[in-house]
Amino acid sequence: MLKEIIIAVQAYWKAHLFIKTHKLWKWILIPGILYCILFMISMYYFAHTSNNFIEWLTLKTGLKNWLDKLDSGWMGFFFTISSFALWLVMMLFYFSLFKYVFLLVGSPIFAYLSQKIEAIIEEKPFQFNSSQLLKDIKRSSSIVTRNIIRQSIYVIALLFASIIPVIGLIVPIIALFVESYYYGFSMLDYCMNRHSKPKGESVFFITNHQGYAIGNGMLFYSMHWIPILGWVLAPAYAIVAATFSIYPLKELQ
Fold first, then answer.
1. Which of 171, 175, 181, 238 could connect to 220 by a Cys-Cys bridge, CB 3.0–4.6 Å?
2. Least reliable range by pLDDT among 37-46, 76-85, 178-187, 197-206
3. Using CA atoms, how far apart are residues 195 and 137, in angstroms rounded to an integer?
4. Separation of CA 69 from chain center
5. Is 75 inside a domain boundary?
6. What is the b/e burial string over 171-210, where b = at least 16 CB atoms within 10 angstroms of the residue's CB?
7. Are the C-beta atoms of residues 103 and 140 closer than 8 Å to each other?
């Protein structure tokens, strides 16, 4: 798995050189700017919602009054850490929902970009195929819906685990790996579709090569540490990098 993660990470640099060489910036910036605007609005709203929910939960359960009466520094410390872990997991959960909505809305652009990239790699004329694009959008929607259901089950379980002292400290890390895997999964499926792989075979391959998905998703999330520029570039860079991760399989065939 580690080797696959490294390949997926290196693919982002290949993606950058490829985009720069073939001047694909308009296909990067158009969805990227839209994503950046929606990301800022959503994260601001999600952060306030999460804070309000945690405050409501502590008051409703009587936990805050109990801690005040207990007057224990250690218990207060564990409560603060657990609250922060819960807040992080909730933010990741909110972000995952936002991310999937954007994948559904942006699926026409991502499918088109995936077709265009592979045509350039194979040095053949790019011919837009509207019927194929509709099939790609339908398949993408199916994969996204599948991932939303599966990931939500895992994240809800992690939300409960995050309130457990000590254990809650590692929950955000686990949640980040889950998030990375399922986002990378969606990106890789675009490329598997380019290889004429049916959905079942794509799911089987990615499930057995999780490193590609995790590595792709990890770099996608890492780019969000770069304000504005990283938010703009992250979505399209992820799809281009996924293409470079998977394309060698086609050459082997």
1. 238
2. 76-85
3. 16
4. 42
5. yes
6. bbebbbebbbbbbbbbbbbbbbbbeebeeeebbebbeebb
7. yes
Cα separation, 52 vs 44, whole angstroms = 13
Look at the chain and report how many structural domains it folds into: 1
Q: Which residues of 145-169 are buried (b: 16+ CB within 10 A; e: fewer)?
A: ebbbeebeebbeebbebbbeeeebe
Is residue 252 a part of any domain in this protein? Answer: no
Identify the CA nearest to 183 among candidates 151, 217, 210, 233. 217
Give the range of the structural domain holding residue 154, as residue numbers without chain letter.
Answer: 2-247
The reply to whether 232 falls in a domain is yes
Residue 146 belongs to a domain: yes
Q: What is the pLDDT of residues 100-147, one digit of tens each?
A: 777 777 777 777 777 777 778 777 766 666 676 677 777 777 787 788
CB atoms near residue 130 (< 10 Å): 7
